[in-house]
Model the fold of this input.
Amino acid sequence: MRAVVLVRPKPGILDPQGDAVQNSLRELGFAVDDARVGRIVDLEVEASDADAARREVEQMCRQLLTNPLIESYDIELA
Amino acid sequence: MTDGRPRIGVVTFPGSNDDRDALLALEQLGAAAVPVWHAEERLPDVAAVVLPGGFSYGDYLRCGAIARFSPATKAVADFAGAGGLVLGICNGFQILCEAGLLPGVLRPNASLSFVCRDVVLSVERADTPFTAACERRQRLTIPIKHGEGCWFADTDLLAELEARRRIVLRYEDNPNGSVGGVAAVCNEDGNVMGLMPHPEHAVDPLLGSTDGALILGGLVEAARAASSPRAVAATV
Done:
């Protein structure tokens, strides 16, 4: 089963990369008031069904893919 | 002990690049420095361990996140749990945070720039094994060289750490955006410390400051005083 993990800096966490992207977009003339930069992890997971896959991927997020102090995550299953 | 010198291990991960400087500095300060390869499941007979600077596993995912899985890191965690002295420098600090041996996390510098220069540190605690050769409020000049040295803890965690005197060194002029200007933290028992500055690059007058010798020299003396040598298995 295909899973996509979206990792984001938590709200309130300083994101200098997002700030740099926002400033650059504004330089190009785009009216951007906020930009945050995260990470995508594409996974192919062996699981019997979607619930099992989600549980597995949540464990992956907690144990490795994110640092819960600074990052949140969303899981999309396809 | 080897001919009276305390044995201190320095772990080399794939991508470590300050391991040799750490070995050299420890030898210069009177220790018998012992190289430890990251794949070793048991630590050799040592009284202290240093996790050196560098870019273990290319800093993939997050700095320090992959080195946490090295067999030697698990052995170091057991060693620390048994009261062993562990010092993490730069990438070693990042690894200790990711491994849960120290609080907080290191993030990209607020400036997004790699910073490489001497910084002035204030000694917040002189009663740890790593700062026993310093005086409280003493100012140390030690270089930093990192792109991800912005230590972060949320407000509650920082308040708890401040209350429990876990902040050991602070930047005089915050070079990376660390909350509270934190440059070094220790664990609750004080036997594990991580710092972003590089004391191993500041032990010889030829390189400028020798203030790093106060930190590493303190570690050498603490290792000398540490009880019986030990070898701790990676898994029990």
User: Anything to note?
Assistant: Chain B has five helices and eleven strands. Confidence is low (pLDDT under 50) at residues 231-236 of chain B. Helices of chain B lie at 19-28, 71-81, 91-98, 155-163, 212-225.
